[in-house]
Amino acid sequence: MSALNIVEGRGYIAKIEQHSFVDGEGVRVSLYVSGCPFQCQGCYNVAAQNFTYGEPFSETLLEEILASCEPNYITGLSILGGEPFCNVDITLKVAQAFRQKFGQRKTLWVWTGFLFEYLSRTTNKRFQLLSLIDVLIDGPFIQALYQPNLPYKGSLNQRVIDVQASLNEGKPVTYIA
Ligand code: SF4
């Protein structure tokens, strides 16, 4: 399937993890949304490629996510998938509520199969989401480029990007090589 053959989410989430130690720096809350058009071979979360996997998102779940982020030991929120940028009805709402509640005191990390260059020139809602993110891990997982123990990514093509620096400079700026 082409990355340009984009499908929009149906408002489902696959999972919420209250204490993740691997989805970014520090102890984090992780939200996994459902549905991804990329269908990467070797995908780490095949079940969540389905757009109706899991349960419908709700205001109650939003409050649960925000409450889980409150303790001081929680560094921030991570959003994974599925594809967060094919679920902007959920992810933009969560990101906006997260920023409203915590400002810049906690960080927002997002994993996507899209490239930063594409997202920085994309539709309004997707760009709004991008502009709220601290760290973006971009690009599809490519099995042939898999390498163990890469920081926060699975294959060598993926990048760990400092989004705010990248938007300022108009080109991707690496956060962790
Ligand atoms: S972009 Fe991520 S979630 Fe989507 S198929 Fe690829 S590895 Fe799986």
From TrEMBL:
<comment type="function">
    <text>Activation of anaerobic ribonucleoside-triphosphate reductase under anaerobic conditions by generation of an organic free radical, using S-adenosylmethionine and reduced flavodoxin as cosubstrates to produce 5'-deoxy-adenosine.</text>
</comment>
<dbReference type="InterPro" id="IPR034457">
    <property type="entry name" value="Organic_radical-activating"/>
</dbReference>
<dbReference type="InterPro" id="IPR013785">
    <property type="entry name" value="Aldolase_TIM"/>
</dbReference>
<keyword id="KW-0004">4Fe-4S</keyword>
<dbReference type="Pfam" id="PF13353">
    <property type="entry name" value="Fer4_12"/>
</dbReference>
<protein>
    <recommendedName>
        <fullName>Anaerobic ribonucleoside-triphosphate reductase-activating protein</fullName>
        <ecNumber>1.97.1.-</ecNumber>
    </recommendedName>
</protein>
<dbReference type="InterPro" id="IPR007197">
    <property type="entry name" value="rSAM"/>
</dbReference>
<keyword id="KW-0560">Oxidoreductase</keyword>
<dbReference type="InterPro" id="IPR058240">
    <property type="entry name" value="rSAM_sf"/>
</dbReference>
<keyword id="KW-0408">Iron</keyword>
<comment type="similarity">
    <text>Belongs to the organic radical-activating enzymes family.</text>
</comment>
<keyword id="KW-0479">Metal-binding</keyword>
<keyword id="KW-0411">Iron-sulfur</keyword>
<dbReference type="InterPro" id="IPR012837">
    <property type="entry name" value="NrdG"/>
</dbReference>
<keyword id="KW-0949">S-adenosyl-L-methionine</keyword>
